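Hi all, long-time lurker, first post. I run a small reading group and we've been trying to get comfortable going from sequence to structure in the token notation. Rather than ask abstract questions, I figured I'd post a concrete chain and ask someone more experienced to write out its structure so we can walk through it together at our next meeting. Sequence below, copied exactly:
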Amino acid sequence: MKKNLILFLKGIIIGVGKIIPGVSGAMLSISLGVYEKLISSMANIFTETKKNLQFLLIIGSGIIISIMLSSNLIMYCLDNYYLLTMLLFIGMIIGCIPNIVETAKINITRKNVILMLLPFIILLLLNIFSNNAFNVSINFINLILIGILEALTMIIPGVSGSAILMMLGVYETIIDSLSSLDHLDILLPFIIGIIIGVIALSKILNNLFKKHKISCYYVILGFSIATIFILLGNIFVISYSFYELFKGLLFLILGLFISYKLN
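-- Answer (accepted) --
Happy to help. Here is the structure in token form:
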């Protein structure tokens, strides 16, 4: 019972992370120690159905409930306590670094350096383009494709689903639909796209983990470090008082503590 409750709470945190622009739900799932299990469960949902479905239902219900109930709260926190909110989640991402380093068995080679540098380039480009919305039209097919892209961000660490939705100019539309559930014409194709994307991409990534686990974790390490630098860069485009920075440091430490306790 306690194990399931902790798993549910992890789902709550991952769901909150999905809402915050720049924060990756997949990255938080790594910091909370459930990433590989999530990928494996989604990829093998039709083979070990009972065990995997139970795991996915518990953590998935936490994610869904969190997104539905906390959307407005998160928007309020970002509007009124931006520094504290962002540093809390950055602390949680930093908290996952030691586990990734331990799994990756750090060995500085040309290949490993390239694997860690690629995420910097990818996330830098996404960060640049996220400030320029393409204003994609809202229709059934586009919403399915947007859902598939969202699934990609759910599975690949460091890529923020919220940032992608902002880049496409549909962030507010999707968030409003999720928080009110009044627009099933938007939600249903979006969710269909997510399901299609998750099933297909999780199988691909699960096979990569089986065959190239160490290489995968070098890429994840690169995404983790790149995410931290980019988020910090976005936060400190304006100056803060010493008191605000002190409070921010406390929330950063709180994020580290949460990541440690839930691992």
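A couple of things your group might point at:
Residues 184-235 form the longest helix (52 residues).
The chain has one domain: 2-261.
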